[in-house]
Amino acid sequence: MSHRHRRVTGGVALAAVVSLLGCASSGTTRSMEPAVAPSLAAHGVYARYIEAMGGRAALEQYTSTHVVGQFLMPSQGIDGDLEVFAAAPNRIAIRVDIPGFGTVNNGFNGEVGWTINPAVGSSVLEGRALNQMRQEADFLGPLNVEAYVDTAEVVEDTEFEGKMCHKVRVVTRWGEEYVEFYDVASGLLMGGIRAQESPMGPMETTTVLSDYQEFGGIMIPTRMVQRTAGVEQVITVSAVDYDTVDPAVFAVPEEIERLLKKQ
After folding, report:
1. What's CA 17's distance to the chain center, in Å?
2. How many other β-carbons are positioned within 10 Å of the β-carbon of residue 260?
3. For 35-63, how does the pLDDT look when each residue is reduced to its tens digit (9 = 90+)?
4. Bridge-partner residues for 160, per DSSP?
5. Cα dihedral across residues 224, 66, 121, 136: positive or negative
């Protein structure tokens, strides 16, 4: 079954594109109950989020997603073309073409994670960076919390970017801690604060999601702003295809293969 794109305005973050689209293999059945359960309140927030997105059946109806859009850094005048390919169970390829700069290429093929950046070179992801990429690449996203989260608890209800939200403190199975914000009114994820791994080390990033729209029965944010060290990045999406992705897009690039052989 192929679902052609719908034109939209707004954007979603690179790191969150797959999990927030909520796509999943139709053959997958996973319990929402984590192996190590979050507090009752946090579990309720997660369950409500799944329903707000469209429910389990909607999340499990696709096997791949192709997103097309733009990557913007307004303060620096940077505007690039964005493509994100994702497929079940846990593959992702992200490409940003920036005129005068080159192509940034990040990916995960289920085992190997990589980044290719004209500014800092190529690298094979390890440690926390690899764990973050593996979590982001999970095609089931919200239905597979237990694979990555050790504990989660609602610490307070607070305002985040003008909306009253449940603030959830998350501790991953590899010991990383971050916070997420879920809209009290709608149940949808509004963003979070997390130290993203980078070639320059961990960098605290605030992510803001907004303008949710329905895509193939799934509610996703159509605008995301990321703020890191005073620099703002915006991802805007223009089109989405379901179940049209060629598996070849997830092949490990040759320069990453060369790095792997040297290890």
Report:
1. 4
2. 11
3. 344 554 689 999 999 999 999 999 899 99
4. 163
5. positive
Residue given tokens 């915006």 in the structure block:
234
- In the chain, count H helices and then E strands: 5, 13
Dist CA 205 CA 173 (whole Å): 20
- Structure tokens that stand for 185 in this block: 């009114």
The neighbour count for residue 27, using CB atoms within 10 Å, is: 9
Handedness of CA 225, 198, 114, 175 (dihedral sign): negative
**DSSP assignment of 12-67:** --TTTHHHHHT---TT----SS-SS---HHHHHHHHHHHHHHT-HHHHTS-SEEEE
Half-sphere exposure of 99 (CA within 13 A, CB side): 5
Beta-bridged to residue 147, according to DSSP, are none
Q: Are 96 and 71 in contact (CB under 8 A)?
A: yes
Q: pLDDT tens across 180-234, in order?
A: 999 999 999 999 999 977 666 788 999 999 889 888 888 878 888 999 988 999 9
